[in-house]
């Protein structure tokens, strides 16, 4: 446990320290020397990707802790971390041409594998994240369904208006046409998704994951600002390496990296949280169906501490909407046979595992530990053994 705390805190300090140092370096180059040393600007522009690399490495480790590709949250963290690595790859190729070959990078080039690839990973990551934190539930609301159409439509129109409405196809290769359209439209899609997920999940996102997921969504918005600015300046021939445009990228890498670290912090806080209090004398007198019903409620309430309202929404989906009274914190299942209750517990734990990985099983066992002590091995649900 101490090793985990140390590594997480160490990565966070490294990211923040690097951001401060790189910011100070950029301020000197930008305001003091004012681009009078172009080579120094290129070196700085090639250096700040270190934050993306470190953030991605930590994110890959965290994704594994949350279940990797087997869980929705682990999968989304993998996608965002890979997106950061692809950004770094594209930037490395870009810097290699500028610093070592001392020529302008061709377009299209191998760097577009990284830059365009990151867009695809960010889009998929935002979609998965929305599924984890209640976007699906929110879309049952008519206003939200209208909103989810309007937001992307507006952003896509803006991207088309500024970058594509006067596009000339003559003499342009099919690959360049694809990228010229793919960049602004792809970036508009992940921005629309980030904003939509932020709005739609605001009611459901909570618990220890709230701040970390908010960091990630904000990072996608900052990333879009950086990408939009790059496209706009490149289109108008005003892009300068090491200028404020690069600093926006530094900011987006930092925010996303800190978001991934906070997801790691949420994992630690969940994994090593205190177990439930000892059962009361009242609970000691419960029969098996009543104990199993209390286990269901305990699991939901503990999962709520991890992810917020979505824990209740998933429970309603598994158990039935009428079976869960959140306001009174009661479970009202008609078939209270032990076999049915055990089946429902297994289904509920499996649903949480799909979202949050094996940690969800640990959380569920921890929540039910004292109540499980009152059951025989045969009476204990398979998922909690």
UniProtKB/TrEMBL annotation:
Keywords of this protein's UniProt record, alphabetized? Membrane, Transmembrane, Transmembrane helix
Nucleus keyword on record: no
Asked whether the keyword Flavoprotein is assigned, the reply is no
**TM regions (residue ranges):** 14-33, 45-66, 78-101, 113-134, 146-163, 183-201, 213-235, 247-268
Q: What is this protein called?
A: Uncharacterized protein
Species name: Candidatus Nomurabacteria bacterium GW2011_GWA2_40_9
